[in-house]
Amino acid sequence: MGISFTVLSSGSTGNATVIRGGGKTLMIDAGLSAKRIDELMAMREMKGDELAGILVTHEHSDHIKGLGAVARKYNLPIYANTNTWGAIEKSIGSIEEHNRHTLETGEHLDFGDMRVESFAISHDAAEPVGYNFYVGKEKLSVATDLGYVSEKVRMAISDADVLVLEANHDIEMLRMGRYPWNTKRRILGDMGHLSNDAAGAALSEILTGRTKRTYLAHLSRDHNMIDLARMSVRAAMEDRGCFYKDSEFRLCDTYYDRPTPWDTVSES
């Protein structure tokens, strides 16, 4: 049994992704209300009691808003590194001791026949991470909320069959936008969010021929647009000599208000 997944919601209003593989189903983050997460799961014909646990990337509210409520409702274990646990405890409410699990950065855990591995990313949080998922020879990588793609991140996500990668903002839209300068500087910094251009630059260095699809995630509603993100990322790749045919590689969309269709990593 390979890996399948759906990005339930992606963006500054809330983030949650579901991964199935090796006989287990996991959620990454629960950044919307429990009610809304249930609605999004229902759109993909699944329920919370199918989940084997929730993996946390970091403590910002758009990633943990519904974490405690969902975990309590379905009696789910939560997995996070020690520093992230320290940062989320006051926000998520009481969690039964048997559902508190530590997955330190760089370590891995096996869920059935699916291996989950965390890796460090750069963001203004206690100890933010991305995740790799492995079943057999299949690999899915999820990396959002990162100010830049370091060499270690490139190594972590290279050779993924499918990649979920942040393309948060168009730089000029952000610079001309309504945010105060301090907020803009944070987003543009090395501990902020990845721009369309930076996502394209990273992909031009990462792609080896194995990666067939990249989902552009965590788009800003104020400073990006779905079509613009896709076009800008592709243009940035081509500017760096990375040309591809749609039959060989595709850029795919994610949404803040609805889930992506179920996708199978092994799908060509």
Provide keyphrases for this structure.
Metallo-beta-lactamase, Chain A, seven-stranded mixed sheet, 9 helices, 268 residues, alpha/beta, 29% helix
CATH superfamily: Ribonuclease Z/Hydroxyacylglutathione hydrolase-like
Note poorly predicted spans: none
The order of strands across the largest sheet is 6-5-4-3-2-1-14
Count of DSSP helices? 9
Give the rounded overall mean pLDDT.
96
What does the radius of gyration come to? 17 Å
Query: What does the overall shape look like?
Result: globular
Given this structure, which CATH class is correct?
Answer: Alpha Beta
Taking the alpha carbons of the first and last residues, their distance comes to 16 Å
Number of domains: 1
Main sheet summary:
7 strands, mixed
Percent of residues in beta strands?
Answer: 15-25%
Q: State the secondary-structure class.
A: alpha/beta
Could you estimate the helical fraction of the residues in percent?
25-40%
CATH topology grouping: Metallo-beta-lactamase, Chain A
User: What is the CATH-assigned architecture?
Assistant: 4-Layer Sandwich
Catalytic activity: 3',5'-cyclic UMP + H2O = UMP + H(+); 3',5'-cyclic CMP + H2O = CMP + H(+)
InterPro entries: Metallo-B-lactamas, RibonucZ/Hydroxyglut_hydro, WalJ/YycJ-like
GO molecular function: hydrolase activity
Function: Counteracts the endogenous Pycsar antiviral defense system. Phosphodiesterase that enables metal-dependent hydrolysis of host cyclic nucleotide Pycsar defense signals such as cCMP and cUMP.
